[in-house]
Amino acid sequence: MLRLVAGRHRGRRLAAPPGETTRPTSDRVRQALFDMLWHAPWAGREAVEDQRVLDAFAGSGALGLEALSRGAAHASFLESDRVALAVLRQNVAMLKEEARCSVLGGDALRPRQAPAPCALVFLDPPYGRELVPKALAALAEAGWLAPGALVVAELGREEALELPGYAEQATREHGAARLVFLRAG
């Protein structure tokens, strides 16, 4: 069972899509991720509060919804799996956050044009497919990344990541996952 860790919706449960198609970020990893954002000299509360956020490969929407709970102004969600998309819409409705969310069916590798650029971007694609560089290129081309956007990518622990034009701020390992914090150049 997923729960929101902190903020306005702290403790609220989120539904997760059934099966193995999506792999929701655990509560423990989300807590660590947001603790880093909150306290890092290269981020801070202002990295989340009052920002537009993109949760690509959204699944249940846990990352974007956690950001909203912690004060983000708006969250956009990109998800291509229809079952996950239905669960995501259910989670947004349960939290009564429809006014601050855009739930978009679609592929992060071929995204629609952004309605507005986002200052904080979460990428949690399936591990081992080297999708982060491809998704970032497509999202930048479609106008999703604000200048100097902070990108948080969740990868498999052994997965390589080389991204010219992005400055790595930090990396942390949590079980099978590795979180990489990047700043768009």
Structure description:
Residues 1-26 are annotated as: Disordered. Residues 1-13 have a biased composition (Basic residues). This is 16S rRNA (Guanine(966)-N(2))-methyltransferase RsmD. It comes from Falsiroseomonas tokyonensis. The model has no long low-confidence stretch (mean pLDDT 94). With 185 residues, this protein is an alpha/beta fold. It has a single domain (2-19, 27-184), classed as Rossmann fold. It starts with a strand and ends with a strand. The protein has four helices and nine strands. The strands form two sheets. It has a seven-stranded mixed β-sheet with strand order 5-4-3-6-7-9-8, with helices on both faces. The protein has a two-stranded antiparallel sheet with strand order 1-2. The protein is globular.
Mean pLDDT: 94
Q: How many beta strands in the DSSP annotation?
A: 9
Instruction: Please give the radius of gyration in angstroms.
Output: 15 Å
Please identify the oligomeric state: single chain
Specify the helix fraction band.
10-25%
Order of helices and strands: EEHEHEHEEHEEE
Q: Give the second-level CATH assignment, the architecture.
A: 3-Layer(aba) Sandwich
| Domain module tally | 1
- CATH homology superfamily name: Vaccinia Virus protein VP39
How is the topology of this model organized?
Layout: E1 2-3, E2 13-14, H1 27-39, E3 52-56, H2 62-69, E4 74-79, H3 82-94, E5 101-105, E6 118-123, H4 131-141, E7 145-156, E8 166-174, E9 177-184
Parallel strand pairs: 3-4, 3-6, 4-5, 6-7
Antiparallel strand pairs: 1-2, 7-9, 8-9
